[in-house]
Write a structure and sequence with these properties.
Blueprint (H helix, E strand, L loop, with lengths): L2 H15 L5 H9 L25 H7 L15 H14 L9 H10 L6 E7 L8 E7 L3 E6 L4 E5 L3 E7 L2 E6 L7 H4 L13
Antiparallel strand pairs: 1-2, 1-5, 2-3, 3-4, 5-6
Keywords: Nucleus, Phosphoprotein, tRNA processing
Family: Belongs to the eukaryotic/archaeal RNase P protein component 1 family.
Protein name: Ribonuclease P protein subunit p29
């Protein structure tokens, strides 16, 4: 190549390799006949991750995702669920033996999933709730949905109610006022033992 072509090529190459450098600086480098090339980092554009959006609470209500159809509100349908729950608790507590320590079982039950458990409202500030017995079908932050033997779906608030559940002769009490959590949140919570508990 001729000298002019070579000069033009080198100038263009340097301009492309070092885009931040001005033409005067490149020309100055060429006159010295020595060029130290610096590595030019191209800025990587971060790709934004698309978050998968679930349904909002309003959409879930509109779609009636958590509603149990009237024809499915039958106690007998959910008895197999109760049998599964009993086996789940036995496995969780390594068998409910007579010599098992009550506070250890109580601690496990506090974090256990209660869907399928048969509970009874033993104390309440509202007398009409006392005596309601049935299988827990759904647990929300503030309420239990319970199906009774009379095939009636009862919505019982946790607040100001005490529930009891019995399994293999072991009776445990749930103070609903201290239980205002979703099932998923409850499994990670550390419960403190308290001397006295009020409704």
């Amino acid at each position: 190549q001729g000298s002019e072509k070579a000069k033009t090529f080198v100038h263009a190459f340097l301009k492309r390799s070092m885009p931040k450098m001005k033409d005067e600086a490149i020309q100055d480098m060429l006159t010295r006949k020595a060029v130290v090339l610096e590595h030019y980092h191209k800025k990587k554009t971060k790709q934004k991750r698309k978050k998968t959006k679930g349904f909002t609470a309003k959409q879930r209500r509109e779609l009636r995702l958590f509603e149990i159809e009237p024809e499915q509100q039958r106690y007998a349908i959910f008895l197999p669920l109760h049998e599964l729950w009993k086996q789940y608790i036995r496995d969780l507590c390594h068998g409910l033996k007579p010599d098992a320590q009550p506070h250890m079982i109580q601690g496990k039950l506090l974090k256990a999933d209660l869907h399928g458990a048969i509970v009874t409202v033993t104390k309440s500030k509202c007398p009409s709730y006392v005596g309601i017995t049935g299988i827990i079908l759904q647990e929300f932050k503030h309420i239990f949905k319970i199906i009774t033997k009379e095939d009636k779906l009862k919505v019982v608030p946790k607040l100001n109610n005490v529930f009891s559940l019995e399994l293999d002769g072991f009776i445990s009490y749930i103070y609903g006022s201290k239980f205002l959590l979703r099932a998923s949140e409850r499994s990670a919570k550390k419960f403190k033992l308290k001397g006295t508990i009020d409704l």
